[in-house]
Amino acid sequence: MAYWRHKCSACYKQYNKKEHLVEHMKVSYHSVHQPRCGVCLKHCKSFESLREHVIGPLPKEDCSRVFSEQGCNLCLKVFDSPISLSEHKRSCRLPAPSPIGAMKLPYSDPIVVSHNGRGPGAIAIDCEMVGGGDDGTLDLCALVCLIDEDENVIFHTYVRPQISVTNYRYEITGLTEEHLRDAMPLKLVQEKILQILYNGESIVRARMQGGKARLLVGHALEHDLDCLRMTYPDNLLRDTAKYPPLMKTNLVCHSLKYLTQKYLGYNIQTSFHDPYVDCVSAMRLYKRMRAQDHPNDASEISTDAYKSQNVTSKFDSLRAKELEQMSPDELYEISRPNYKCWCLDSSQAIQP
């Protein structure tokens, strides 16, 4: 029988040689921001892997037993008692938002709400696409919706495509030629959206520090921005399709429909896709991730520069022998995530 001498303090993997544990720590990016089992405290790469750990096909037996009695299937937290769990579930499972059509808001006229001061910290966006080109596969934005953190509509309008529509994709969008007859020109839509997002902040300052510019929340934001022919600073994007804790264990993105059902507790996109409903779902996912209660770390990176910064620098600054002399707990202490946790959006206000 193999004798494992070196155990990772985060995910509990075990190694025969200390050098193998060190290599594991360099590429695992363990930190207080990773999802953790509420029973055994094991770190997981994503909520999907945590779900498999407690309720998957081959769950950890002890953890599965406790979770079945005291765990929430949505947020995956474990509570002190079934009574505490029951009280929690009333607020954790959210009601499905009403489609904007049911709210009788006018599609033909844009809805714009003026914000004074900082206003909401985040704006969610969703677009519905129709098809252009000979085969109808070219995505054209035909409808766009923006909401604030309180799920209020702040901009909603049909968009006039710059080329002819050859496929309205009615079975998904519910749109017809009549809907786009008096739609707003794309250029004007761009101007109004950017005005809302930048909030009077300069583009240069927004790209560097955020300033008064607002965070942009959505699912597969790159697709929406491409179809709007717009760009927005990467440091201000909060994409539920690319946030590592919400991705599959192989780092492939889930659909918004899946994430909403698994983490919010209701179904969307069961018939026509409604951009307001999708906006609300993305915003709720963002706020749920932002509300994660993680311990403060005095050495936490305070900007969104994870992509450009070498997050393994603390390991690289030490020699191999020095690392191998460190305990598993000490190795964990110098480990850092390779993404910015959204909980930092709450603890760290964007500087004006």
UniProtKB/TrEMBL annotation:
Keywords recorded for this protein, A-Z: Exonuclease, Hydrolase, Metal-binding, Nuclease, Nucleus, Zinc, Zinc-finger
A Pfam family annotated for this UniProt entry: RNase_T
GO biological process, one term: rRNA processing
Main localisation: nucleus
Coiled-coil annotated spans: none
Keyword Metal-binding recorded: yes
Any one cellular-component term (Gene Ontology): nucleus
Molecular function terms from GO: 3'-5' exonuclease activity; nucleic acid binding; zinc ion binding
Domain C2H2-type: 6-35
Localisation: Nucleus
InterPro entries linked to this entry: REX4_DEDDh_dom, REXO1/3/4-like, Ribonucl_H, RNaseH-like_sf, RNaseH_sf, Znf_C2H2_type
Gene3D superfamilies reported in the protein's UniProt record: Ribonuclease H-like superfamily/Ribonuclease H (3.30.420.10)
Family indicated by similarity: Belongs to the REXO4 family.
Protein name: RNA exonuclease 4
Lineage: Eukaryota, Viridiplantae, Streptophyta, Embryophyta, Tracheophyta
